[in-house]
Specification:
It is a single chain. It is built from 12 helices and 2 strands, in the order H-H-H-E-E-H-H-H-H-H-H-H-H-H. The two termini are about 15 Å apart. With about 375 residues, it is mainly alpha-helical. The chain has a two-stranded antiparallel ribbon with strand order 1-2. The radius of gyration is 21 Å and the shape is globular.
Length: about 375
């Protein structure tokens, strides 16, 4: 059995900083919105603590102490578990439509978003499957590599069906890019990755053209002045908020945009509110924390001797960093509006719970390198 060490203290400190930032920012941003809807300033804050942070810390500790081989064996059952609940989002009485999307499952007083858990389950399964193929030397032969590509495409295609039907194209994009990155880093033939990227670009082009609202988002991205009171309203208000923050911000809790002006202030648009309150200095520091998280995670992955642990660490690092960059980029006009949360910061118990479990796994891997 491989001797374990102390977990990576730098990664632990970065993780604590991200979680602290998340709670601090949410407490500031959600107060007025919570008072308006529920008559108390602490509803969203307390909900995030009770249904996101506390269970996330609990399950994160379990993930920290769980043997990696046990985690590898659980990868496929966890993926099946997530797919089952993805299917339940379409079941009457359990799932249901909210603002035109089927993304939630309600079991009594508990509601959650299965697609958030799917991100981590897919990373674990992909790492377990690719590492097993490598151990069997299946990736080295021509026939073996072709069957690997075919099977990976089938798994990703089946998951894509659920996410397209919900619809949750942003999550699909994060999931697919993370999976392709892991596949590439598993030393598979380069043309496999190229083929998947071309196919993915074609699918994205098709999905944009069949849904008018997606096409409108792309049109607004290419021409920011288009439809400023319609599809372009959110990005316009986000940029106004970010610009109002200046160098040092208007002060914590003093944002004007969060008072009903900017849509989705506690979820997708939370970075714009943070930038308004903390300015360029605070925004740059938050971005540096995410980049530090990526750097330390990649260092841990590079040092890992076990291939499953290495791919898992790379997958988690790529997922969280990519999602953070896409969210920040969409709020600053670098990317089209994506509609995905900012990791550890945006309101959402399912997302925070999954991210804390991922941190527990990363710290688990770090103590074995």
């Amino acid at each position: 059995m491989k001797r374990t060490h102390s977990p990576d203290i730098i990664l632990f400190a970065i993780s604590c900083a991200l979680v602290f930032f998340g709670i601090l920012i949410l407490a500031s941003v959600s107060a007025s919105f919570s008072m308006q809807k529920f008559g108390t300033t602490f509803y969203f804050f307390s909900h995030q603590l009770l249904y996101g942070m506390l269970p996330g810390i609990l399950f994160g500790i379990v993930a920290f102490f769980l043997p990696l081989q046990t985690l590898k064996k659980l990868a496929f059952p966890l993926l099946l578990f997530c797919v089952f609940f993805l299917a339940l989002t379409f079941a009457p009485g359990v799932g249901g439509e909210i603002r035109g999307a089927y993304r939630w499952v309600s079991l009594g007083a508990i509601s959650f978003q299965p697609s958030e858990f799917l991100k981590l389950a897919f990373i674990l399964y992909t790492a377990a499957w690719l590492s097993s193929r490598t151990e069997k030397k299946a990736l080295r032969s021509r026939g073996g590599s072709s069957s690997t590509l075919l099977f990976f495409g089938i798994i990703l295609g089946l998951l894509s069906v659920f996410l397209v039907l919900q619809p949750d194209i942003s999550t699909l994009g994060i999931l697919a890019l993370t999976g392709v990155a892991m596949y590439f880093l598993a030393s598979t033939p380069l043309w496999h990755t190229g083929a998947m990227l071309v196919l993915g670009a074609g699918l994205l082009f098709f999905l944009v053209h069949v849904a008018p609202y997606r096409f409108s988002r792309l049109a607004v991205f290419l021409n920011p002045g288009l439809d400023p009171l319609g599809q372009g309203y959110q990005i316009k208000q986000a940029l106004i908020g970010i610009g109002s923050g200046g160098l040092t911000g208007v002060g914590l809790g003093l944002s004007f945009q969060k008072f009903g002006t900017l849509p989705e202030p506690i979820s997708d648009s939370i970075f714009a509110i943070f930038a308004e309150e903390m300015g360029f200095v605070g925004s740059a520091f938050l971005l540096l924390v995410f980049l530090a998280f990526a750097w330390r995670s990649f260092v841990i992955a590079q040092r890992a001797q076990d291939f499953f642990a290495r791919l898992t660490a790379l997958g988690i690092a790529f997922w969280i960093t990519l999602q953070a960059l896409v969210n920040i980029g969409s709020m600053t006009g670098i990317f089209p509006l994506a509609g995905i949360p900012l990791p550890f910061i945006s309101y959402g118990g399912s997302a925070l719970l999954t991210e804390l479990i991922a941190l527990g796994i990363l710290l688990n891997i770090s103590k074995r390198v």
